[in-house]
Design brief:
Blueprint lengths: L1 H30 L24 H7 L20 E2 L8 E6 L8 E8 L2 E5 L5 E2 L1 E3 L8 E7 L12 E8 L4 E4 L5
Antiparallel strand pairs: 1-2, 2-3, 3-4, 3-5, 6-7, 7-8, 8-9
Protein name: LppP/LprE family lipoprotein
InterPro entries: LppP/LprE
Pfam family, one: Lipoprotein_21
Length: 180
């Protein structure tokens, strides 16, 4: 019986060592936490949705505009004088800016933004008495009201032109035309 027991005993010992060896190999992997060697990165702060006429991107856009050619005046950077619905989360939004020292008939430019990125001005030239047409504006459309040149800027004479600017998925299209 000793002859049979010895080979069985040796086989059991080999089996125990093999199992223990495999378990020993796995244990350090499971116990050791995974360490990242890359340095931590700083993420951009989350975008805050909602109308924000004091956003830095507006000031950056203004810096790209040339001096207004008719008045030779620089564009005002004072956010208190801005009109619009700029929202960094909107498909299309606008900020209407005027020149420094503006009056009611001074030139205005409508700056257009797609998801907070500056696209350019709504029209190649500035128009006096431009305002946001809230009733004709949506997430992807900006409605503007242009007063006809020569009409009284303090009167309600009905000489307004409605124009819309719509984001079509890749660019802005103008619906209507400003007065001449």
């Amino acid at each position: 019986m000793l002859r049979i027991a010895r080979p069985v005993l040796v086989a059991c010992a080999v089996l125990v060592l093999a199992v223990a060896g495999c378990a020993a190999e796995r244990r350090p992997e499971a116990a050791a936490p995974h360490e990242h060697s890359a340095a931590p990165t700083t993420a951009d702060p989350p975008v805050r949705c909602g109308i924000d006429l004091s956003a830095q991107v507006i000031q950056s856009a203004l810096a790209t505009l040339p001096i207004e050619p008719v008045t030779q005046a620089p564009w005002s950077t004072d956010a208190r004088g801005f009109q619009g619905n700029f929202d960094p989360c909107a498909t299309l939004s606008t900020v209407i800016v005027t020149v420094e020292g503006a009056t009611g008939s001074s030139p205005n430019h409508a700056l257009l933004f797609h998801k907070g990125a500056y696209l350019g001005t709504a029209t190649p030239r500035a128009y006096g008495s431009t305002s946001l047409d809230v009733d004709r504006s949506t997430d992807d459309t900006v409605g503007l009201l242009y007063r006809t040149p020569g009409s009284c800027n303090a009167c309600d004479d009905g000489a307004l032109t409605h124009v819309q600017f719509r984001w079509d998925g890749s660019k802005v299209t103008m619906i209507g035309a400003p007065p001449r």
